[in-house]
Amino acid sequence: MFFNKSLIALDIGTSSVKLIELGGVGVKGLRSMGLELLPPRAVVDGMITNRDAVVSAIRTLLKKLKINPLNRRVSLSLSGSSVLVKKIVMNIQKDTDLNEQVFSEAEQHFQIDMADIYFDFFGLDLPDGLGQENEKTVILVGAKREMIENLIGAVRESGLRTGVVECSVFSASNMFEYNYGVFEGLSVLLDIGASTTKLSLIINGLFVDTRELPIAGEEYTRRIMEGMGVDRSNAETLKIAASQGEANSPPELPRIIGETNEMMVQDVRTSLDYFIQGGDPLARIANLSQIYLTGGGARILGLDAGLAATLQVPVQILNPFQKIDINPKTFQMDYVLMQGHLYGIAVGLGLRQMSDNAA
After folding, report:
1. 117-124 sheet: strands from edge to edge
2. What is the reported pTM?
3. Strand, helix or coil at 199?
């Protein structure tokens, strides 16, 4: 089987670069996977601030995984405050071009010079009985040109070419649907990264909204540093050790993590209340049915239990490789099972094709 035309998925995050390569038709097979850590502040709020470090990480991964970058294209994800995603309901005007009308709406809602961003949109096909005949629900997507060109520049410098660029929330949703199918009701995806947590709402298989929460992995680390008087490196080690169930953790560590969990749970609850009580017609057709966690912070000690207890729904760690064919002779299955949640965005990117119209 040949995979030479597949896209190489690169998830360039705050703390690391993840690479995934999938191949095959129908059932996807894992061909390559790897992770390379980045120095602090190499990527800030989705913007590459230390290009040398990022390019070095990409090149290191390509070398380790024996991937020749010549004429290879990558799929990339965007995140951070420079990415704008907003759901609106438009009154469709007769004899007016839809693209022009959406562009005008985006100017008003984004409140930014449209010449400074790359912009796209897609419409939501609502179930019968929701919305008015002359209304259309649209997801507006924009990203600052500076951010995208900065990202593409680093990829080119590493010897690769860019094929698909999309928002990370859509990568996560794509990965979720491929592995878990369509669920009835409201499903919540929580992608807990280093600097931000992205909450996505999916109703009956339809992506309907997203929110960005301020608490993420770095907030846990910061609170451990302050509460225990340790440096960042030790705080990160303690956080990971506690999440892996090591019994020798200091007694104050679970308390600090638990207090931060309570803040995270409250943010999730507030976001859900805002959606459910905000008059969105989609909120009327689906009750909250489950929550899935992905990203580097998905296994934070006690977070899944705290969400389940407060919101009274099942909560589980999402497995991005659930329906991916993996050869156990090629990959360490223990690593895939224990660290797979780190690759949620990368797997979603790996499922993309050059022909996709990805936002």
Report:
1. 83-91, 135-144, 117-124
2. 0.92
3. strand
Reduce the DSSP state of residue 77 to 3 states and report it. Answer: strand
d(Cα 188, Cα 346) in Å, to the nearest integer?
Answer: 19
In this predicted model, what pLDDT tens digit does every residue of 204-227 receive, in sequence order?
888 989 999 989 999 999 999 999
d(CA 109, CA 335): 43
Beta strands in the chain (DSSP E): 8-12, 16-23, 29-37, 43-44, 47-48, 73-78, 83-91, 117-124, 135-144, 161-167, 186-192, 197-203, 206-213, 288-294, 315-317
Question: SS3 for 227-285, per residue?
Answer: HHCCCHHHHHHHHHHHHCCCCCCCCHHHHHHHHHHHHHHHHHHHHHHHHHHCCCHHHHC
What CA–CA distance (Å, rounded) separates 49 from 57?
14
Please state, in angstroms and rounded to a whole number, the distance separating the CA atoms of residues 215 and 220: 8
Residue linked to tokens 């956080």: 239
CA distance 213 to 268: 8
Q: How far is CA 52 from CA 2, 17, 60, 148, 307, in A?
A: 32, 13, 12, 17, 39
pLDDT digits (tens, 9 = 90+) for 298-324: 999 999 999 999 999 999 999 999 999
Would you give the DSSP letter of residue 286? -
Mean pLDDT of 62-91: 93
186-192 and 288-294: which strand pairing? Answer: parallel
Q: Is the dihedral of CA 265, 271, 275, 276 positive or negative?
A: positive
Taking 3-state DSSP, the helix, strand and coil percentages for the chain, each rounded to the nearest 5, stand at 40, 30, 35
